[in-house]
Amino acid sequence: MIKEINCKNSNFKKKLKNFLEKRRSGKTINTSIVLKIIKDIKKNKLKALIKYEKKFSKNTKIKPSKKEINQSIKNLDPKIKKAIDFAYSRIFKFHSMQRAKNIKYVDQYKNQIEYKHIPIQKVGVYVPANLPSTLLMNVIPAKLAGVKRVVVANPLVNGRLNAAVMYAAKKCGISEIISAGGSQAIASLAYIQKVNKIVGPGNIYVARSKREVFGDVGTEGMVAGPSEICVLADGKTDLNQVITSMIGQAEHDVNSQCILITKDKKLANKFNIEIKESIKKVQRKRVVLKSLKNNGLIVLAQSDKQIIEAIDEVAPEHLEINVSNYKKYLNQIHNAGSIMIGKYSPMAVSDYNVGSNHVLPTLGSAKFSSGLNLSEFYKKISHITLTKKGIEKLGESATHLAEYEELDNHAQSIKSRMRR
Questions:
Q1: Which parts of 220-335 are beta strand (E)?
Q2: Beta 176-178 vs 197-199: how paired, if at all?
Q3: Judging by beta carbons within 10 Å of its beta carbon (0-12, 13-18, 19+), is residue 360 exposed, middle or buried?
Q4: Distance (Å, rounded) from C-alpha 8 to C-alpha 302?
Q5: Which of 5, 88, 404, 410 has the fewest Cβ atoms within 10 Å of its own Cβ atom?
């Protein structure tokens, strides 16, 4: 059922790249409707938003009232409230340690350079349907960074507010919520709520929408698209742990990507047999089957070097290193959003309450970006104050460079501050 690439073949790297590129290119799914939705909402604002919400979700009320939110929360199971409280505490503590420090440098001429972290003023957070954990992961760092206005977009499910998402929003002090999903939610945040930056994961349509509005608003420095996992296993790995991790990720979305990397041929063969039986017993069977059929892969490596090469090429959102000697791999891996180490560290728990962030780079963007953190919610601004003596000392050298670059007016501007 799941495709296999054997690294015995000299062209295995090319095969792996082709497999990954097919999904990353997005050409297998027609997302052209995204452009139409964004253009319409940009022009016609609320009227267009209601039109698409009515079409896709049968929803005509975009802004829930405080009474509706509180009523929704009343119906939430107390154990879910307690679980959200517990997750909030751990996420808050871990992200509090990421608070930025301003930099100040003063030279011998008393010239002063400061590097100030200024919170972004308005942030939009996209929260897929029933994921209170995603709200916590996005809103907590935004609030810690000092963002004044946070707008949450969360779609209705079967015409109802999600009680757990509403509780998490209240816990985080969110007062602005719009009931909208997909591309229309992203367009609304950009052109109706007019936020400065949009964060939050989503499906292929949400990821495309964020790319399209970028420039009018900011987005994360990564692609937070359909979920991914890569599991590194060996002959001593508990096969059930591998299977549950792969299926657990596949249940997210038909576009989720699940990759097993191993040197053990017996484990690979056994995995391919036993996962078929396991799928028969799971919820969301149709989604899991389609995800694994289209985007599931076994990479059968011949050496540790090939294992490292494969992982760095995949650049997975989540990596589980579930082998007996993980230390020989760990420090050689450069590309991954988050790494779960050892047999007691399932990726799934990091989605909820470990404390690290679960909004992570996908579609290969772990090669150049990091998971969501407080830095995403700051702008960095330089403050520069030069003294009379300072401009004399710096100015002479600076004018030489300005004149070399044939920017004479730059040189004149500098000289106008210097003694004649």
A1: 228-233, 257-262, 296-300, 318-322
A2: unpaired
A3: buried
A4: 7
A5: 404
The token duo for 50 is: 């209601």
- pLDDT (tens digit per residue) in 376-397: 999 999 999 999 999 999 999 9
- Residues serving a catalytic function are 317-318
Cβ atoms 282, 251 nearer than 8 A: yes
The answer to whether the CB of 358 falls within 8 A of the CB of 139 is no
Sheet holding 149-153, edge to edge: 176-178, 149-153, 122-126, 197-199, 218-219
Question: What sign does the dihedral 297-302-304-308 (CA atoms) show?
Answer: negative
Q: List the Cα angle 302/307/310 in 5-degree steps.
A: 115
**CA–CA distances in Å: residue 179 to residues 157, 164, 251, 291:** 10, 14, 24, 28
Q: Which two tokens stand for residue 32?
A: 């052209």
* CA separation, residue 28 to residues 6, 18, 204, 210 (Å): 25, 13, 11, 19
Tell me the sheet residues that pair with 296: 258
pLDDT tens per residue across span 25-49: 877 789 999 999 999 999 999 999 9
In the sheet where 378-385 sits, what is the strand order? 103-106, 112-119, 378-385
